[in-house]
Amino acid sequence: MRKITCLLGLLLTTSIAFAQRQSTSSRYLMLVRELEQTVDTNQRASLTVVQPDGTFKTEEIQVEATAYPAKMVNASIARFTPDSTSRASRRLRYGHNKLYQLEVKKLNELSAEGWQLVSTTQEGSTTRYLFRKDAMAAQ
Fold it and tell me: Is-annotated flag, keyword Signal (predicted)?
C-alpha cells in the first residue's frame, strides 16, 4: 500500500511540474471608445482596436446632431413618458445611441472571434475594454 501511495505521489508531482512547464500564454486586445465634444453640438467619436502585436485600427465616427432628420429622432423616443428636451438635445442623444450601437456591434464581433472581456475602465468620455484570448483556445 505504501508503494502505491509513493507511486501516486510521484505521478502527481511530475504531472504538476509538467503542467507548469507548458506555456499557456494569453494574448490581449484592447478596444477604446473616445468621445470628443466640439465647439457646436457636433461630436467626434472613435473606436480603436489595438491588436496583440501592437498594430491598431481607428474608425472615426462623426456624430452630427443636425444630420439626423427630426422624424427619425422622434420615432426613437418612447411615447409613454413625456420628453421635455429640446430638438437639439434629442438629436445629440440619438447620435450617441448610434455610437453605442456601433460599440456593442464591435464588442459582439470580438466576442464571436473568441475574445473574452477581462476588464472595462472609464476616464471621462473614454472607455477602454481589455480582452484576452488564451493560447490554448487559439489553437
Answer: yes
CB 45 within 8 A of CB 33: yes
How confident is the model over 6-45, as pLDDT tens digits? 555 545 555 555 555 555 688 999 999 998 866 555 677 8
Domain ranges for the chain, please list them.
26-138
Q: What length does the chain have? A: 139
Name residues whose C-beta falls within 8 Å of residue 98's C-beta, 6 or more positions apart in sequence. Answer: 61, 63
Candidates 63, 49, 57, 26; CA nearest to 109 is: 49
| Paired strand residues for 120 | 129
Residue percentage of the chain with pLDDT more than 90: 35
| Residue closest to 105 by CA, chosen among 52, 33, 29 | 33
